[in-house]
Amino acid sequence: MVEHARLAIHGGKPARTTPNPPMFPGGLEIDEREEQAVLEVLRSKRLFRYYGPYEAKSRTEDFEKTFAKATGTQYALGLNSCTNALIVALLAAGVQPGDEVIVPAYTFVASAAAIAAADAIPVIVEIDDSYTIDTKEVEKNITSKTRAILPVHMRGAPCDMDGIMDIAKKHGLKVIEDAAQANGGSYKGKMLGSIGDAGCFSFQFHKIITAGEGGMVTTNDRTLLNRAKAFHDTGANWRNDNTIEDGTAYPKFPGYNFRMNEITAAILLVQLEKREELLRRMRRYSKKIQDAIREIPGVKLRRLNDPLGDTGVCVMFNVESRKKAVEVAGALRAEGVAAGTMGDKDVPDWHIYNHWDHILNRRGNNDSGFPFTLSDRTYSKDMCPKTLDLLQRVIHLDVNPRDSEDDNNATIEGLRKVLTQLL
Fold first, then answer.
1. Mean pLDDT by 10-residue block, N- to C-terminus, for the chain (423 residues)?
2. How far apart are CA 208 and CA 201, in angstroms?
3. Residue 337 domain-assigned?
4. Which are the catalytic amino acids?
5. Per the domain annotation, does 313 fall within a domain?
6. Which terminus of the chain, N or C, has fewer Cβ atoms within 10 Å?
7. Beta partners for 216?
8. Which of 221, 202, 413 has the alpha carbon at shortest distance from 313?
9. Nearest one of 252, 258, 228, 233 to 94, comparing CA atoms
10. Do the domain assignments include residue 243?
11. How far apart are the two ends of the chain, measured CA to CA in Å?
């Protein structure tokens, strides 16, 4: 039996001998369809979303409508990055300078940085064993200054959105979903990005579908949409905007330039057509892996708030100690399984709060330290011990849609071989 075969670290034959593809799900699916879409835009000479020298349809507008429909929202707004989508969504939702916004301790730094860039104060709270924000910690950290919650559907899996929405309703808070890593995921039948007041998505190259860069805000709130349109386009709320029926209702104000361009949108229209097949493959492989290891003593799989809504981009599980996690991950890599650990103090991982030095040291993007000068909230590297403990004991492996069934079976063989012998 494979469980009793000699481990590769002891001279045995590796379970998997095929290379692990790089984890760029949509990026590695780029083919002649994206090429043709880009060529059509170039030949039309309409590179700017609002106009060109000749009559041509706007790919950005098409993508916004298509993405909104796919997400189950009334509206979507294309931007040049998810970080800017978060900034715009926070501002459009009414977050004011000095307001507090609750964010998990495990997320890419952009989630917290966007809060500070919107002149608000990040309130960093613990995650739970789903590796998403702990709703109990959200409730404990609400103050008179709290204006919004920013739950992050981290590593493709949904947060406890029932709990978050109940808290938001109880305290009159806005909810901005960060779905950067969970495009196409869902929670109890609702698409991620459609549950809160707004959802934000990333199309950066690591993401499920991609144009290299790009972002999206989704919402059912027309006022939020109109404010977001103005913020993302220098405050130009009059330009080609048929959702603003009465311009006097939305007074002009300064904004930014975060617009999406036509080439990006053209690529993403094609990528969106490929999303469901990518998700189907990752979900199938992920489920097979989890089913194969869940009963092995010493394995504690990540708890999923909605297993059916998980995108399947990875499998995560905990072992008893940091030392054991490092040992197991090394043995898995020797078997040809690209597993890794987190929480190494010497490796700057900007997905973990204790590496966000500029946030922890209350540094603004100016000499005064604004917006942190509006708050007496302080931070420390050990402020979220439960998060650090979970992440230091975790084993993480990507689930690659370009793997074959044989590759996935070999990965499972390597996992069972190592876990049954080392745990």
1. 84 97 98 98 95 93 98 98 98 97 98 98 98 98 98 98 98 98 98 98 98 98 90 75 54 86 98 98 98 98 98 98 97 98 86 96 92 97 97 97 98 98 97
2. 10
3. no
4. 207
5. no
6. N
7. 78, 201
8. 202
9. 228
10. yes
11. 17
